[in-house]
Amino acid sequence: MFNKVVIAGVGLIGGSLGLAMIRRNLAREVVGVDPAAENLALAERLGAVHRAGVLAEVLPGAELFILAAPIGVTLGVLEMAIPYLTSGTIVTDVGSVKGRLLERARKMVPEGVYLVGGHPMAGLEVAGVAGAREDLFEGASYVLTPDPHTHPLVLDKLKKLIQGIGANPVEMAAGDHDRAVAAISHLPHLLAATLVNTVTAEPNPDQLLKLAGGGFRDTTRIAASNASMWRDILLTNRDRVLETLRQFRGQLEEMEQAIENFDSQQLVYGLERARNVRAALPENRTYLKKR
């Protein structure tokens, strides 16, 4: 158990972390910091934090500092926090891009403060603490990106916290993480948004959208996420995303050629291969099973 945890950015992820830690007795005190006063007040009412404050007042003496702000402002928040960090404090984040962010963050963190990148592979298409759930992380993978200098006891403490909120800790190098999420998270968001934009560019898009059934809705669900947040994610992971886009374009061209050449064998092969992989994909998210 942590004595005092400070969460900077009490939105969906930060709020859900706070809820899980409080309700499962993983922290004696969870303090929230957020620029949106209404959101912070709601976090208190929902029990996602015990109390609210500002960095200068609440950070001294904190055992764990969680950077849960949007990725575009994470380093700015860390910079503001530096003067108030106590030796021995563990600093972690929840951002979906690790390499470039951690490289800069390590240069900022003072000696005696432990920095370990983190990324819970969980989320919803809502923003703010109003959508926070205690069980958001149940069954989800939670990536940690330690470096060779990470203290084993620090890593062990974070793993126990992750297990305590119901998630499965996974250790990865920062570069491997960024390559992975470019394929399984960032590319799908681009594809969902592009599919919606393709349909809306058609003649009579309103009529088409009225006909849209479950397949279209399921495929484009993540396109409803916050655009500014995704802009920052995609640009921060720019190189990996571009690599993955090129790979996708190659796969799409193969399917296009099969249709153009009336190559039913190649078309069936591509569809069957995808069907088999998708059918074997485990559903490990507990709260999704409850829907």
TrEMBL record:
Keywords: Amino-acid biosynthesis, Aromatic amino acid biosynthesis, Coiled coil, NAD, Oxidoreductase, Tyrosine biosynthesis
Domain of life, source organism: Bacteria
GO biological process: tyrosine biosynthetic process
UniProt-recorded name of the protein: Prephenate dehydrogenase
Sequence ranges assigned to domain Prephenate/arogenate dehydrogenase in this UniProt record: 3-289
Pathway as given in its UniProt record: Amino-acid biosynthesis; L-tyrosine biosynthesis; (4-hydroxyphenyl)pyruvate from prephenate (NAD(+) route): step 1/1
Family: Belongs to the prephenate/arogenate dehydrogenase family.
GO MF terms held by the record: NAD+ binding; prephenate dehydrogenase (NAD+) activity; prephenate dehydrogenase (NADP+) activity
Keyword Cell membrane among record annotations: no
Annotated organism of origin: Desulforamulus ruminis (strain ATCC 23193 / DSM 2154 / NCIMB 8452 / DL) (Desulfotomaculum ruminis)
A Pfam family: PDH_C
Catalytic activity annotation: prephenate + NAD(+) = 3-(4-hydroxyphenyl)pyruvate + CO2 + NADH
Coiled-coil stretches: 238-265
EC number: 1.3.1.12
InterPro entries for the chain: 6-PGluconate_DH-like_C_sf, NAD(P)-bd_dom_sf, PDH_C, PDH_N, Preph/Arog_dehydrog, Prephen_DH
